[in-house]
Design a protein that fits this description.
about 80 residues; 434 Repressor (Amino-terminal Domain); mainly alpha
C-alpha cells in the first residue's frame, strides 16, 4: 500500500537546495524531525509549515499536496 502524501517539504527543499540539517537548524528542531516530515511519516503543525515556507521564501501552499486537482477553491459544485 502506497503511503499517502500530505506535504511536499522534501521536494521544496530540493528545489531550493536546502538540506534537512539546514532547515532543522533554522527551525530549532532535530534533523530526524525534518526527515519524518519529508517522508510523510509525521506532519508539521500549520504554524511550522508557515515557518518552513518563510525560511524557503515560498508560498505555504507550495508545501501542500492538493486534495483536489480538478476544481479550484472558487468553483461551485
Amino acid at each position: 500500500m502506497k503511503k499517502e502524501q500530505f506535504n511536499r517539504i522534501k521536494g521544496a527543499l530540493g528545489d531550493q537546495g536546502v538540506t534537512n540539517k539546514e532547515l532543522a537548524e533554522a527551525l530549532g528542531v532535530t534533523p530526524s524531525t525534518v526527515s519524518t516530515w519529508c517522508t510523510n511519516d509525521k506532519q508539521p503543525s500549520l504554524e511550522t509549515l508557515y515557518r518552513i515556507a518563510g525560511y524557503l521564501n515560498i508560498d505555504v501552499r507550495h508545501l501542500l499536496v492538493p486534495n483536489k486537482l480538478s476544481a479550484s477553491p472558487t468553483q461551485k459544485r
